[in-house]
Amino acid sequence: MLTTHEVAADLPARDLFLVASSHGPHQKWACVVLKVMHIIHHINGRAGLLTMSVSDEIIFREIELKVMQVVEQLRAAGAPLTEWEWSRKPRDSQITKLLAKRSTLAANIYDKLRFRLIVPAPDDLVPMLGTLTRQLIPFNYIVPGESVNQLLDLRQLSHERLAPPSPAPSEIPYNEFSGPEYRIINFVADLPLRMDRLVPRTEIPADAAHVVFMLTEFQIADKATALLNESGASSHEAYKARQNERVRMRLFREKDDPLPPD
């Protein structure tokens, strides 16, 4: 019979998962230990980025290669994916974004690296999300409060699976400058990346984290919605025009600016 001390100090990680996933007197303690391990691992990985002499360019490239490898494997296996693309937010767009908002912290820019995946039909959205969380995106590293769902009716999905009802698709605009008809599934994840993809293994200190993290934005939509998002008031050109107008109002402190003064 395991003791609480053995669960906390002596149980191998593999067995911790087994205890945490089964009913028993030590399930709660195993969950507590795993939660603490997860936090320490994440903090060490974040700190690892600050101690490495590696540019954002190199880190972005490795994240792109990692995502590209997984997506191409999914396509080869027949996953429903019509198209996909990735982009980096240009410096001038980062400046414009901060000028348009009350917050001017560059650390709050989560979409410096963005991936967009388009599936053939609405019924393909859930399978694609499920596949991504199994193959690429750890759900526990999705940034809270930065997710938007405007496509899936979670109440209906929960009802079909006889689960408790969940919130309906968000009616809040994905972004204040987006068009009224713009619809997307959007979330930000701290993607893990092995440090030996960035520097030679011999240069990694023995006590250093072997995994670092990079904030990455993902957007998912079906093909018909993606086409609508590219037209009229929802187009990127219309979005930039509204954003630039807000910047002008903010800089000149015009009375019509909906944001209070800084």
* Envelope shape: globular
* Fraction of helical residues: 40-55%
Q: Work out the number of β strands.
A: 5
Low-pLDDT segments, ≥5 res: 162-173
The CATH architecture of the largest domain comes to 2-Layer Sandwich
* Strand content range: 5-15%
What's the N-to-C terminus distance?
A: 60 Å
CATH topology of the largest domain: Beta Polymerase, domain 2
Radius of gyration: 22 Å
In round numbers, the mean pLDDT is 84
Give the SSE string.
Answer: HHHHEHEHEHEEHH
Please tell me the total number of domains: 2
CATH superfamily of the largest domain: Beta Polymerase, domain 2
List the helices and strands and how they pair.
Elements lengths: L3 H6 L3 H8 L6 H25 L4 H21 L6 E6 L2 H9 L13 E7 L5 H11 L12 E2 L4 H7 L24 E10 L16 E12 H7 L6 H16 L11
Parallel strand pairs: 2-5
Antiparallel strand pairs: 1-2, 3-4, 4-5
Helix pairs in contact: 2-3
What does the model show?
The protein is α+β, with helices and mostly antiparallel strands and 262 residues long. The protein folds into two domains: 45 residues; 197 residues, 2-Layer Sandwich (Beta Polymerase, domain 2). It is built from nine helices and five strands, in the order H-H-H-H-E-H-E-H-E-H-E-E-H-H. Strands 1-2-5-4-3 form a five-stranded mixed beta sheet. Helix 2 packs across helix 3. It is globular, with a radius of gyration of 22 Å. About 5% of the residues have low confidence.
